[in-house]
Design goal:
206 residues; alpha+beta; 5-stranded antiparallel sheet; 5 strands
């Protein structure tokens, strides 16, 4: 199953809860055990949406009075970045308290590897996106993510679109884009090269 199959599924759904369940099933096909969608647009009251119990209580365990969310750093860029206890030491920007928070969550849950997928980038980290987590070891996780990177990133974008859907003003005919034109714009936005786009569309590059 790839993200094009996911689009077909999501197109038939209009209930956010059903969209979320379809998204979770999609990520689990690639070996990800837990999926979080986070909205950090309010630093004072960060929100974990459509997720299982949050890591907030671990903040008290490690002595943090205000719950920071390490994903604030990841949401400063559109590039996916490794998350989880097995990668915490690679993130020099994290405080000791944040590393302890990540370690406590990993120890209890068994989910020690993962990756962020940014949906809304913000220079201060006040963005939104996914944290997809796995019980795979570090090397196995990196291999899995790299092999399925395009399907994971594109799939996350389409699930987020369904969760955050807002009423859309219908454009006039002059500004309406075809489905293929919309696909092309999405491919470009997510950094695919011309050859990769052509392969996805089933066309040749002259």
């Amino acid at each position: 199953m790839d993200y094009l199959d996911l689009i077909d599924q999501l197109d038939a759904l209009d209930d956010p809860a059903a969209i979320w369940r379809a998204g979770v099933r999609y990520f689990r096909r690639f070996g990800f055990d837990e999926v979080y969608f986070l909205d950090l647009s309010s630093i004072e009251r960060p929100k974990a949406l459509w997720s299982q119990p949050s890591i907030e209580r671990h903040s008290h365990t490690v002595g943090l009075t205000r719950r920071p969310d390490p994903l604030q750093q990841c949401f400063k860029t559109l590039r996916p970045c490794p998350t989880g206890a097995d990668f915490a030491a690679d993130h020099h920007e994290l405080s000791e308290g944040e590393r302890a928070l990540i370690a406590a969550f990993g120890e209890e849950s068994g989910l020690r590897t993962g990756s962020s997928i940014t949906i809304k980038r913000d220079s201060l980290g006040r963005g939104s996106g996914f944290n997809i987590l796995s019980s795979l070891g570090r090397d196995a996780f990196l291999e899995t993510f790299e092999r399925h990177r395009t399907d994971l990133v594109m799939g996350a974008q389409f699930v987020a679109s369904g969760l955050q859907a807002e009423p859309i003003r219908q454009p006039d005919d002059a500004s309406r884009l075809t489905v293929r034109e919309c696909d092309c714009l999405a491919f470009v936005a997510f950094g695919l090269r011309i050859a990769e786009i052509a392969q996805r569309l089933g066309v040749s590059v002259m």
